[in-house]
């Protein structure tokens, strides 16, 4: 594939093309689905800038490549996949993510409370990516009720959000910050510990 011109003007009428050549509205649930996967991939690109651990950064790179495969799968209808001989998004990617989750969990302390999406910059960006991943999953679940979706796409997104949660905790652990725990009762004006107050200091 060689792209020689970025703009084509073919989408000016509010439609875009799928991999099989079909023209559909840009706000179609299928476009929303793989567009959100692209947003997730971009969020991971930002997160990588704040992750110092080379092994974890390498894992995020692999996930970004996997998300391109997943987005490509969503951009082609099931009959066209068969017509083109296009491989479906593989289950081995789901298994690989489970292995990453297990490895991270073996290093992390048990959860004692819900954690805030906070801490080190890398952790905060991974939490943001996790939320985008959940949104992508919700959209694909909705799409799967209306059209055929490859069987491993939803499980992959489900595992990925769990993996990103573990990775965020791992960054905070390795950087010495640790989990930033939710303090119950804050909505009613309950006290926060100094480390959890805006501008607070643990020292």
Can you characterise this structure?
The chain has 203 residues and is mainly α. The chain has one domain (23-184): Cobalamin adenosyltransferase-like (Hypothetical Protein Ta1238, Chain: A). It has helices spanning 29-48, 54-74, 78-84, 91-107, 121-146, 153-174, and strands spanning 15-17, 23-25. Strands 1-2 form a two-stranded antiparallel sheet. The radius of gyration is 20 Å and the shape is elongated.
The helical percent reads 55-70%
CATH superfamily: Cobalamin adenosyltransferase-like
Main CATH class: Mainly Alpha
For the record, the count of structural domains works out to: 1
Quote the average pLDDT.
88
Low-confidence stretches: 197-203
Order of helices and strands: EEHHHHHH
Radius of gyration (Å): 20 Å
Distance between the termini: 55 Å
CATH third-tier fold name: Hypothetical Protein Ta1238, Chain: A
Provide a brief overview of the structure.
With 203 residues, this protein is an all-alpha fold. The protein has a single domain, classed as Cobalamin adenosyltransferase-like (Hypothetical Protein Ta1238, Chain: A). The chain is built from six helices and two strands.
Please describe the structure with a list of short key phrases separated by commas or semicolons.
203 residues, mainly alpha, Hypothetical Protein Ta1238, Chain: A, 6 helices, elongated
List the helices and strands and how they pair.
Blueprint: E1 15-17, E2 23-25, H1 29-48, H2 54-74, H3 78-84, H4 91-107, H5 121-146, H6 153-174
Antiparallel strand pairs: 1-2
């Amino acid at each position: 594939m060689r792209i020689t011109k970025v703009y084509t003007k073919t989408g000016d009428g509010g439609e875009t093309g799928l991999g099989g050549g079909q023209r559909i509205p840009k706000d179609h649930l299928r476009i929303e689905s793989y567009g959100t996967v692209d947003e997730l991939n971009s969020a991971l690109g930002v997160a990588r800038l704040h992750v110092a651990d080379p092994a974890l950064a390498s894992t995020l790179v692999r996930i970004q490549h996997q998300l391109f495969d997943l987005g490509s799968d969503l951009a082609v209808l099931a009959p066209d996949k068969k017509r083109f001989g296009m491989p479906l998004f593989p289950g081995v990617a789901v298994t690989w993510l489970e292995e990453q989750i297990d490895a991270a969990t073996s290093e992390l302390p048990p959860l004692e409370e819900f954690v805030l999406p906070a801490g080190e910059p890398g952790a905060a960006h991974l939490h943001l990516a996790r939320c985008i991943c959940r949104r992508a999953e919700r959209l694909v679940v909705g799409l799967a009720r209306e059209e055929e979706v490859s069987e491993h796409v939803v499980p992959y997104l489900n595992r990925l959000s769990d993996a990103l949660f573990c990775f965020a905790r791992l960054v905070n652990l390795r950087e010495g910050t640790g989990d930033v725990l939710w303090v119950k009762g804050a909505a009613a004006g309950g006290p926060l510990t100094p480390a959890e107050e805006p501008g607070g200091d643990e020292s």
